[in-house]
Amino acid sequence: MIYISHLLPDEEMQELLKNSELGVESIEFSISENLDHLDKTIETYKERLVKMGNPPLTLHGPFLDLIPATFDSMIHRVTMERFEQCYQVGKKLGAKKIVYHSGMIPTVYYRQGWADQVSRFFNDFLRDKEGLEIDMENVLDEDWRLLRDVSEQVDHPDFGLCLDIGHAHCYSDIPVIEWAEELAPYVRHVHIHDNAGERDSHLGLGRGNLPWREVLSYLPRTETRTWTIECMNKEDVQICIQSLLT
Q1: pLDDT tens per residue across span 26-63
Q2: Whole-angstrom Cα distance, residue 243 to residue 213?
Q3: What are phi and psi of 160, to 5 degrees?
Q4: Sequence-distant (≥ 6) Cβ neighbours of residue 218 within 8 angstroms
Q5: pTM score above 0.90
């Protein structure tokens, strides 16, 4: 299943989704202001989804100022509450998956013990939950090993990883091919975009220097693995769709 991140105007999303089997990854419920007015946001977004043809849905969870690895009880509570709000939205809207950031900030958090703390957070978060897949995404993460360690320590069938190949390419000194090869057994969702290795440009595949063909050879679509195209304009989205389907 291929999704398109809802980074484009609704009219362009409607055009891309028309007569296709593509889905939508919504960013609407990653925004704290929308979570503060949740009932209204849900109803408004339902109407927008109808205009887009009610496509299959994945959600991008909230992330700004939220820290799964925190040792501070108050920050832990707020992070858990925001994640829970998005989870309940996913249930109400029939989403297939929710993507949450790992929250890793290199030079701020020590590598030692980080995976243990994040694993405890997600084990607590997923207690008594079922039926909605949760995938943890790399952003500033520098080492795939920490994500693997979290995946192995979270004891829940609905938990997996989201590998953002663009983030791995520009934020890590480890080649993105290695990220894909080593994490493939754990990756259930893939964020697709390109860059030149210097900044998170969110370009269409082939417009940067990410070796995307080799990377995606380790991450083919399966019954459980899905992809989201995360580009900032319609032309780049179309480039990615064409690249993925040919």
Answers
A1: 999 999 999 999 999 999 999 999 999 999 999 999 99
A2: 9
A3: -155, -165
A4: 177, 180, 181, 184
A5: yes
